[in-house]
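Review the following:
>
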Amino acid sequence: MVRTTGGALARPLISLTTAILTSAGIAGWPAGTAQAQAQKPVEIALIIPLSGPWARQGQLEKLGAEMAIDEINEKGGIKSMGGAKLELISLDAGDSAEKAKNAAQRLVAEHPDVVGGLGAWLSTFTLAITEVTERAQIPWLTLSYADSLTSRGFKYIFQSSPTADTQAANSLPTLIDLAKSATGKTPTTIGLIGDNTAAPISFLRPLRAPGGLDKYGMKAVVDETYTPPLSDATTLMQRVRSARPDMLLYITTTISDLKLGLDKMNEFHIGKGAIPVIGNGGANGAPEVLKSVSPDLLEGYIFTVANWGLKGQEQIIDAFKKRTGEPWMTQDALDGYGHVWIFKDALEKVGKADKVKVAEAIHTMEFDSGPTAMAFPGKVKFDDAGHRVDAPLVIVQWQNGVPVTIYPIDRATAQAKWPKS
């Protein structure tokens, strides 16, 4: 059951049937049966961008969450609660942290019975809404990357992704090894470009810190921060052309900025692998990227994420593609799906719609089987701060017009190809 805030759910047939059974006491229909018919659904919230530059990523997360809601309800709902059904309450985070926070405030005011929530995709938005949900004691699951999300001493936030700084530290050695094996030489210079939202700042922080690149034998020859969305990437890519780094970390959160950057690199004859480009985040692999960027410019482009299509996830991915018509299942959809299943498992353990008890259950449970575990790379367990313990890194590469997983190697769907030009 899915509802977008502001809309009404019409259940006249159920309501009428329940009223007749309850008041008339029809033979063979005990009161318990009537109550079961009218059982209140368990509300789970979803706050994601449904308008503005990040709307497509929000839509993909919503599609994954809706699939999980329908699967759970079709399989009998929450069995420990007499088959109670789940209901997804969706709110638009819009295009700013202020709008996202307002959405969280509406949620708290209008849905006092919500037992948990997920979203809000962009780390900057998630930081804003969890200030509200924490005070309301609403457990909140997020795929957002910023390390600051789980360093505030909050009890009700759960971050299923490896933090952005962890992704940076874990990915760079792998990328250096790829470059060395393909070219025969170790890269020594790097370009750093990122937008000023929370996740890119978090991703690049350890590399920008004094001595941060020294351990890898690398030096930053370009280091730029910008405000998204870009209107023009000329200035940024002129600096890349002048410095000619051995690789470029281009950390953007919007598809439009990715397009502008890659187009300008091609115009300056530093694209198509002349300078290998690495991104971070699920927007880099959204199906819409192909509508904006030509496949030849994308070929070989690498990005790091918390989750992507892996060996072992075929059942979920095939069902999603059949249901939605989407060409593949992105990190956003996978995590939306998996987060709903985490709430389902926690509710089964608790046996009642108690948000505080649900949060306590998530803190203590280890999700290592069933749809919950299948939706993520590796087991899912959270520490006291809400970090996911040992959350693995996933690396994806565009090959032949499709973003395929190249790391971790044991669950990869393709082999990595480092540009040799």
Remarks:
- Residues 165-305+394-411 form a domain with the Rossmann fold fold (CATH 3.40.50.2300).
- The longest helix spans residues 55-74.
- The chain has two domains: 39-162+312-381, 165-305+394-411.
